[in-house]
Amino acid sequence: xxxxxxxxxxxxxxxxxxxxxxxxxxxxxxxxxxxxxxxxxxxxxxxxxxxxxxxxxxxxxxxxxxxxxxxxxxxxxxxxxxxxxxxxxxxxxxxxxxxxxxxxxxxxxxxxxxxxxxxxxxxxxxxxxxxxxxxxxxxxxxxxxxxxxxxxxxxxxxxxxxxxxxxxxxxxxxxxxxxxxxxxxxxxxxxxxxxxxxxxxxxxxxxxxxxxxxxxxxxxxxxxxxxxxxxxxxxxxxxxxxxxxxxxxxxxxxxxxxxxxxxxxxxxxxxxxxxxxxxxxxxxxxxxxxxxxxxxxxxxxxxxxxxxxxxxxxxxxxxxxxxxxxxxxxxxxxxxxxxxxxxxxxxxxxxxxxxxxxxxxxxxxxxxxxxxxxxxxxxxxxxxxxxxxxxxxxxxxxxxxxxxxxxxxxxxxxxxxxxxxxxxxxxxxxxxxxxxxxxxxxxxxxxxxxxxxxxxxxxxxx
Length: 462
Fold this sequence. Notes:
The chain is mostly helical. It has 19 helices and no strands.
């Protein structure tokens, strides 16, 4: 590093807290704010559907059918963010501040490209996407109204992704808790106002739900940008004269592309399962959509734990501190298992109450109660798979996570769901989830053994 750049680096960032703070305290310090903000996000996703369900069951089904395309949108932003996060944190560990700044600026550029892509998706793809899933024109109408707005005004979600990831990468997770919570609260406040026409506003129905969502995202993105400028002193934004760096972009996607593919595969799985379930009834699809909303209360905290864990592992990998890496992995697995087991217990004991939040009819209850109980059996197993999959990403081996995801969702889950659907009993379809997770656990364990032998065991212990 040149002497000029060294002079620009404040003394207090010579050693980041990720390399010195006690691991358990650091992990909680990094993860808890993100976990809390993600729980708030899960809450507003659920409340969003609760309000939409008050319109009618077809409106709820339409929002449920939107999930695969929304998931691809999130996959592009989240996967890019994973790549920026891992590269930036590793560069911080190596004290390579030039690479830190390049990763940040190119991440911002890629966020803009993602937004432009989804403007075209919103204008050209949304209606054919719904028509490929259902011939019910009421569902199609609700869906097009909702998803067109979400796609065409996706500027908020993409810039929220990158600016929050930059804060996370430097250990400022309390700031991301503030931005995500602010966006979620705005969404929660605006949902009933815009959907049902309160306080003098017109009743916009599902369009109101979409508008509330994108306004929350835009406000969160602006707030995250301001916090980066004011508080994130380890990153220097240089917009004037910026040119995309192909080599940096390649590095970002070498880490992030497997994550993008994994989440996109999840979209394909949901799309395929929706087509299998809608052959039984639209209620079956609505139950699946409700499950995805509810399971976010269990999975979102794990993803928050991941977001706090990845930069810690990446930083200490770059700083050659093996014992801190191993401790972080073990603690993350323990916390994830406890959260997931609690989720399974709640899904078993409070099943009917969870479904009644969505105005569930007797028919929906009879279908939804066994569905939630059967699917939730796999939660504790998934805890290990999710955490270790993120470890692979932090160590630059995200392709292992991608392979595992393909095998779980495409090779096992979808075919199993289809074969079980041939029995003519919709409750049998749900067993595809525990079956697929059992396979995923085996593959994850084998990859972890390989990673430990080839990478972790060879890391120094400075």
